[in-house]
Specification:
Number of helices: 9
CATH class of the largest domain: Alpha Beta
Helix content: 25-40%
Shape: globular
CATH architecture of the largest domain: 3-Layer(aba) Sandwich
Radius of gyration: 23 Å
Length: about 290
Amino acid sequence: MVAVAEAGGFSAAAVRLGLTQSAVSHSVRGSERKVGAVLFERGRAGARPTPAGETAVAYARRILRLLDVMAGEARGAAGSGAVEGPLRIAAFRSAALHLLPPVLERLRERHPGIVPRVRIVRETGRGAAGEVADGRADMAVTTLDGSTPLPPGLVANRLFEEPYALVHTAGHTAPRSLPLVDWAENCGSYTRDWWAAQDWIPEATVEAEDDGAVLALVAGGHGMAIMPALSLTGAPESVVVSGLGPDRPSRTIGFVTTPELATSAVVRSAVRELRAHQHGFPVTDEG
């Protein structure tokens, strides 16, 4: 099922698996009979999962991953007890760039057998948590209080609160009068009420692709921006980061995994390093 979904057809899946097309087709038909639903739409262009198929494929990916985890943890229990194996992490851009590197460095020092694989996912729609639900990631570093609820059946835990701040070009005497630079991932439910109450914030003049582009535009004198603290890590000296007052918005950063993988040694090891990481955000509460 996973191979057909990812390859886009039975023939391509057969090549990937080293099987015949008829063997793959027979296997999927058997799965459809057991599940009691049509899992793939067949056509001249190939095959694509139905809504029932999307659900089944997500569970199939998670089952395959659990088989890998079972083998790794059994080897560890039979041998030296070392934690080993791949660790697939999905994260939004600023977390992947500024939060994960020191965490993964310490993880590799303590557990050389763990092989992290990080995938950067836009924090829109189902975001990084959706990668976990679909079986493409073991855990996700994500926002927990956004406008889109987490997919059902996942385990979520808070790590820290990330404040927002005003960023603008150094030396400007009235930074709040500058045009606004923004990007699609920025305004979730955690900022929307605060944002709506601020009559000094104009409509965005420039909408960039991501927070890195926003920061570059601000540094170039093209406007101001309201950004979360992780996005401002290592901001250039040409910009000033100012607080937004005691009622400033913030968002909750946490991790998400499945109930099964939450007890695995690789995920538990990564969570310990995430929790041990100290987060200091140099943003004052002065407006």
